[in-house]
UniProtKB/TrEMBL annotation:
The lineage of its organism: Bacteria, Bacillati, Actinomycetota, Actinomycetes, Kitasatosporales. GO terms for molecular function: DNA binding. CDD domains: HTH_XRE. InterPro entries: Cro/C1-type_HTH, DUF5753, Lambda_DNA-bd_dom_sf. Residues 37-72 form the HTH cro/C1-type domain. It comes from Streptomyces tsukubensis (strain DSM 42081 / NBRC 108919 / NRRL 18488 / 9993). This is Transcriptional regulator. Gene3D superfamilies: lambda repressor-like DNA-binding domains (1.10.260.40). It holds the Pfam family DUF5753.
Amino acid sequence: MAENRTTSGGVEDADSDDGRTADKSAQGVVTAFGRTMKTLRIRAGLEREELGKRLGYSASTIASFEQGRRIPPPRAIDRADGELGADGLLTLWKEEVERAQYPLFFQGMAQLEKEAIELLSYDTLIVNGLLQTEEYMRAVLAMRRPPQDPETIEQRVTARLARQDIFDRRPTPLLSFVMDESVLRRKYGGGQVLRGQLEQLLLLGQRRNVELQIMPHDLEESAGADGPFTVVTRTDGKKSVYMETQGISTLETGPARAALVAARYGIIRSQALTPRESLKIIEELMGEL
């Protein structure tokens, strides 16, 4: 199965990694980092259990880091560098290791999110990854077919949680999310998981830089009938469009296409309920659980 990645009007094919590491080069980075970490730990005279206590992980998790089976979050790399007296050797890997935690087809989008001053997202099937609770993430990832192995799921959860730093970044980006009402009625993971997700949406919707809007299910006309997408605007004003469908992911940076999709999002937003009305709908849905 192939993933399509479109940049500036050109198409680049990449291998899919359903249930596996994104690609061989990314796995090579993770493996090399793990070996370096192990070498430094041994040089420092520390057992995995002791290093784990200092970093807040179990010995088995440290082993997973060292064996390249699990990707450590950036903060763990920073702390490990200090605890092992690496003098920056481990932190040099941080950017590459962080990029490797994403599927190959999403790495470009993950980088764009870091540079975004505005992000516009329309979702029709699941809650946007930037808004998901950890429990909701695990429920969605567990539904993948063919199934993903537990370590890949852990890697994906860690990556999604790291992306949510966008809400606290300075300068604060403007974030707008429109989602179909049906998304908030699907009990992925069960009623308690959905309740926790709805609670998180209520909290995020109260942030000054976040707008959440619901597209009501009884709407007779929608400009979003073609499916979900995200528009990202960088600090230099350039816009990019990211879309996912069954087994295919597309990232477009052509200005004409980006402007067209951004205009479509404006229509979708005008058709949706207002942020205030949307939060009221979310509260009502919670009351039904």
